[in-house]
Amino acid sequence: LQWGDIEADLNDRTQALVEQRVTGGSEDEKLRAMLMQRVAASGFDADVFFASKSALHSIAFELQRVLVDVESLHFSSAALLASVLYGPQRPPLPLLQPLDWLGPTAEQVFACKWPRLPELPELPSADLAQFRQLLGAFPPALLIERKLHLCFSELDQYQDEKDIGRDEIIVNGEGISGARGGYAAAVLALQTALSASEDWSTEAEEAKERAAQLLLGALNRTSSGFAAFEEVLRLFDCEDVIISPASAEARPLEVVMLPGLCLGRAHTQYIIQRADGLGDAPLAVIDAVFSFNVETPKLRRLTSRAGTTWATEEVKAAVLLRCS
């Protein structure tokens, strides 16, 4: 069994899931009724034809969940390694040079490597009862691929300062409160982490500061929250429900710096409730994580410009959704 076989299976089954969601299973019901009419006299069990399809849909759900779990594990493992190398879990004895004992590079181990996935459409127009039914058939975990556009000239420092002022960021295991240190403290922590993981001595000090500002700009709640909410709204929008962020449940922003690779993720929680205000319990709770990584050579290029034009890059990112 090769990875290509698994990828092809995942694409096929997820696409079948998409079709089933859009039709609401009505075609299956029609086919089942027609088949039962034809074979009723023989006593043949028509359900056997539909059991395999149901099993394959379950496998597609499980593969999606595995992808989300693997991506989450990648980041958590990288965060633990960075904390041991440079952060609060660093042992008192001198360590070997970073990753000397690991063999593969940080990019080979921790960079995004998920297969290409078919795009899930939004839930079809439905009233509240139909929306509940469709929600019950929705995969409990989804990985949705995104592209993150990075360019220093497009940073909104004013907005970044506002965002971090009411947030917290963890850099290689060290927590920085935006309410106390503000934007300057967050940028300084990112610069320090960049210097610890790689040699930036050949770069101007301003280049390292710009790299830190780029990472913070990509992670702030305005940017990461917009990407997450866009996917949640696309998939779960319905005129009979309200989707609102549960800001108090959001976890701190996270950045991991390793030799050759920078990783970031931001968590937001969304509550889906009835628009008429009836009922105390939410219809669903969505945990959304915006995750990305960027190779350090790309980050270095982004801090320079040719004349008046700043370099631009598109890096791989994802929104991970868990629905409960």
Task: Write a structural description.
It is built from ten helices and ten strands. With 324 residues, the chain is of the alpha+beta class. Strands 1, 2, 3, 4, 5, 6, 7 and 10 form an eight-stranded mixed beta sheet that branches. The protein starts with a helix and ends with a strand. Helix content is 48%, strand content 22%. 31% of the residues are buried. A hairpin with a 2-residue loop joins strand 2 and strand 3.
Question: In terms of topology, how is this protein built?
Answer:
Elements: H1 3-23, H2 26-39, H3 48-86, H4 106-110, H5 128-136, E1 141-151, H6 157-165, E2 168-171, E3 174-177, H7 178-197, H8 205-219, H9 221-236, E4 241-245, E5 253-258, E6 261-274, E7 284-295, H10 296-302, E8 305-306, E9 309-310, E10 312-323
Parallel strand pairs: 2-5
Antiparallel strand pairs: 1-10, 2-3, 4-6, 5-6, 6-7, 7-10, 8-9
Overall geometry comes to elongated
Question: Given the structure, what is the number of helices?
Answer: 10
**Rg from Cα:** 23 Å
Poorly predicted runs are: none
Counting DSSP E segments of at least 2 residues, the number of strands comes to: 10
Query: Mean pLDDT across all residues, rounded?
Result: 81
**First-to-last CA distance:** 33 Å
**What's the main sheet like?**
8 strands, mixed
Approximately how much beta-strand content do the residues carry?
15-25%
- The level of helicity is 40-55%
Structural class given helices, strands, pairing? alpha+beta
Order of helices and strands: HHHHHEHEEHHHEEEEHEEE
